[in-house]
Amino acid sequence: MKDIIELNPFIRSAKIYQKTGNKGYAVPRDYRAIFILGGALNLTAGEQKYGIPAGGLCIIPPYTRYRLRSDFIKMAVVNFDLTPYRSDVTVLSSIPFDESADYDVPCETLPPFDRVIVRSEFSEAKDSFLKLSELFVSCSGLYRSEASAIFKLLLLRVAELEDESALPSTMADRLDKYIGEHITEDITNTDSRSLFGYHAYYVSKLIKERRGITLKQYVINYRINWAKSYLELTDKSIADIAEECGFTDASYMTKIFSKNVGMTPKEYRNTFKDVLI
Prior knowledge:
This protein has helices spanning about 125-140, 145-160, 170-180, 195, 200-210, 215-235, 240-245, 250-260, 265-270, and strands at about 10-20, 30-45, 50-55, 55-60, 65-80, 115-120. By secondary structure, the chain is α+β, with helices and mostly antiparallel strands. The protein contains nine helices and six strands, in the order E-E-E-E-E-E-H-H-H-H-H-H-H-H-H. The protein folds into two domains: about 5-165, Jelly Rolls, CATH 2.60.120; about 170-275, Homeodomain-like (Arc Repressor Mutant, subunit A). A hairpin with a 2-residue loop joins strand 2 and strand 3 (about 50-55). Strands 1, 2, 3, 4, 5 and 6 form a six-stranded antiparallel beta sheet that branches. The chain is about 40% helix and about 20% strand.
């Protein structure tokens, strides 16, 4: 696996647990993703200790010694591998902890999932974990495939937050969605920290590395493509299209459109007037 985007997780189980008390050390033979639905969790993994409140998430790699402690905890737990390499094994229980043992990891790992990950605030994942548990209760249809698709998006989001160098192309997908929902706003001046957790300059830098253009040009291209659709398929005036696509006025849209397309909006529309759909 050369890139994080090639992830194809295999989920062995997805369940919701409600427990009190503590458990001893365990060593999982697959990955464990634990989302805290209620209460709080104290996690000891290796030599590190973490406090994880409700809405938090931890991901524990295979063959990592860990221990959970809590007075009360309600959590969603997903056991998985990053690939279907061991998909024929539907149950991989933990093995007893042996301090003198040297554990070899027989499954594939990939940064940032080659280390313990803890996100103290990851409430955006709650619905995904609940859906995964529902799928594994019903076990109907292509539930494993659906679960894998849901969980892949979640893992990509975690990778995006954890490792800037592993930023997946889903950033562009989320940017498209954001632009579509805020098309009439001044997106180029929007603090993108609320969307990606990064400063706008850094998002623009990443978009340029991925797509070869800046964030500002990315927004312009989106608006131009939207305007093209209106020009091709509707009789809306240039002024109305400019307003709906987030340009300040018809004159500005004509200037930007001409610069990027090589013809005015009116000329572009005329090339489609005799085309039958």
